[in-house]
Automatic annotation (TrEMBL):
Keywords: Cell membrane, Membrane, Transmembrane, Transmembrane helix. This is Urea transporter, putative. Pfam families: UT. The chain crosses the membrane at residues 87-114, 126-146, 166-185, 251-271, 277-308, 320-344, 350-373. Its main location: membrane. One of its GO terms (cellular component) is plasma membrane. It is found in: Cell membrane. One of its GO terms (molecular function) is urea transmembrane transporter activity. The keyword Plastid does not apply. It catalyses: urea(in) = urea(out). The lineage of its organism: Eukaryota, Sar, Alveolata, Perkinsozoa, Perkinsea. It is a multi-pass membrane protein. It comes from Perkinsus marinus (strain ATCC 50983 / TXsc). Belongs to the urea transporter family.
Length: 380
């Protein structure tokens, strides 16, 4: 080495890249793949302004933006702002029952459009993320599932007939759900900082079931099939796996395991962590149900026990609270309590009177945990 030398020599170093790095480079170099896998904010249609909303072209932009908001509203079932997640959930709902999927889309359209028509302009970005469509999606799925005729419709004409029969009551209840959502956001969330979550859906569904059971035009699965005695069975590996996956399918009120796979694919595209938390929540629900001695062939085997733990896991595992080890522990603890509350509701309300607890265990746990967070009783 010569200190007085000013010449340099370039050394060509080739670094071997693994398959994951090559895949990332391939996605980045492809326009369509990068759009498919990128963050939701990047592929969300821009909010049209007043100038862009005029004429046929403006109407088309508004329509595309609204449909995007509706699909994202369905994606909020796993607390994702991603159109691919919403399409996966919609596909999963239709795989289980076409009436459930169609009613979910209609309900989401109403609860998404209501704040656009009657709310302040400042709500439009929030509406575009789909957050207002969550309760409408749940309401549509529940009404399509718990209506006796719609739940049994399989042929095309039966599906269309059931959807037409449910259209008016679903429209009314979806508007009612949107009003309750706006009222809770103003009177409750704005003052306490605690989200209303799915309370509007629960209130609307209880109202619908109470009214439907007093009429002869609509027959619910509770009045058509009175609640039977709990059915117990033997725990096997096959039963455990089916119960685990059916719990995910119950997010779309379906007993078809393929509905759960559709949801997992959509959740993975939107957020791999949400996909993991969905699986984790269903697992905790099944394990909690087995340890509590719940009926194997009815409550656990049908996946009902997994509904609330999954919503709680995906919400509190990284959406409402920053991801951390402490947060994961609190989330798991909350999933267990959701299972216990679901059993309590089953014993006190479902079995004696019929009806359902819906997502009340989840909303109660979120309200309770946010209260603890705000009082600094526990660390986030």
């Amino acid at each position: 080495y010569d200190d007085t030398s000013t010449s340099t020599t370039a050394i060509d170093i080739t670094i071997k890249r693994n398959w994951a790095e090559k895949w990332v480079d391939y996605v980045d170099s492809s326009k369509w793949l990068s759009v498919f896998f990128c963050e939701a904010q990047t592929i969300k249609p821009a909010i049209p302004n007043k100038e862009e909303s005029r004429g046929l072209k403006g109407f088309w932009k508004e329509f595309v933006w609204f449909i995007s908001a509706v699909i994202r509203g369905m994606a909020q079932l796993t607390w994702n702002d991603n159109i691919w997640t919403g399409l996966g959930i919609l596909a999963g709902a239709c795989v289980g029952n076409w009436c459930v999927g169609i009613c979910a889309f209609i309900g989401c359209c109403y609860t998404t459009g209501f704040p656009l028509l009657f709310g302040p302009p400042e709500l439009k970005p929030l509406v575009g993320s789909g957050i207002y469509g969550l309760n409408g999606t749940l309401l549509g799925m529940a009404m399509g599932c718990f209506d006796a005729r719609a739940s049994q419709a399989r042929a095309f004409d039966d599906v269309m007939r059931s959807c037409c029969r449910l259209f008016l009551p679903l429209s009314f209840m979806a508007v009612f759900c949107a009003v309750v959502t706006q009222w809770l956001n103003t009177k409750w969330t704005a003052k306490t900082g605690i989200p209303a979550c799915s309370w509007p859906y629960n209130i609307s569904m209880w109202t619908w079931i109470a009214c439907a059971t007093l009429t002869t035009n609509f027959q619910t699965i509770y009045t058509a099939n009175p609640v039977s005695a709990p059915q117990y069975g033997q725990v096997t590996a096959e039963w455990f796996f089916r119960s685990w996956m059916t719990g995910i399918s119950q997010m779309m009120f379906s007993l078809n395991m393929w509905s759960g796979f559709c949801l997992l694919v959509g959740a993975f595209i939107g957020s791999p962590s949400s996909c993991f938390l969905t699986i984790w929540g269903s697992l905790i629900g099944v394990v909690t149900g087995v340890l509590l001695g719940m009926p194997f062939n009815s409550i656990i085997g049908l996946g009902v026990i997994g509904f609330n733990p999954i919503i709680y896991a995906t919400g509190m595992g990284g959406q409402f609270v920053a991801p951390s080890l402490v947060g994961f522990i609190w989330m798991t603890f909350g999933c267990v309590l959701c299972g216990i509350l679901a059993q309590l509701a089953t014993n006190l309300a479902v079995l004696p009177w019929g009806g359902g607890s819906y997502s009340v265990p989840f909303t109660m746990m979120v309200t309770f945990m946010f209260g603890l967070f705000q009082e600094d009783v526990v660390a986030r």
